[in-house]
Inverse folding.
């Protein structure tokens, strides 16, 4: 049975036992990744840091909630002092464009439009398409 498995795993051009060695190494590597604790990858440390930041945010929110009545009083004072700016005149500024400007077509160097220049072929022959004799 083991010999039959080894024959199926043979890599052409290599000794017969290399396929089995690659299979065993792959299985061991996969098993190691499954059994490895997540703290090795650094996940545990990152989660602890995020939890500490979350605790700090909770404490800051609690402090802001206690100061909320004080903030609402300050906010009403600012609204009382606010003066609305004068409206802008429509003639002073044109409305913004809804589309970008279209650039002009490129100017290609070459013969003027209307004249057609075809390549001249110099074939051996008399000009009628028949070879010279």
């Amino acid at each position: 049975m083991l010999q039959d498995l080894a024959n199926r795993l043979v890599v052409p051009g290599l000794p017969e036992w290399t396929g089995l060695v690659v299979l065993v190494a792959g299985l061991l590597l996969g098993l190691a990744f499954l059994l490895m604790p997540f703290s090795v990858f650094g996940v545990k440390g990152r989660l602890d840091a995020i939890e500490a930041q979350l605790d700090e945010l909770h404490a800051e929110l609690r402090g802001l909630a206690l100061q909320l009545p004080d903030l609402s009083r300050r906010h009403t004072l600012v609204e009382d002092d606010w003066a609305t700016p004068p409206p802008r005149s429509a003639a002073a500024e044109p409305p913004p464009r809804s589309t970008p400007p279209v650039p002009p077509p490129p100017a290609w160097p070459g013969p003027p439009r209307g004249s057609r220049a075809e390549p001249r072929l110099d074939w051996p022959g008399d000009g009628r398409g028949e070879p010279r004799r």
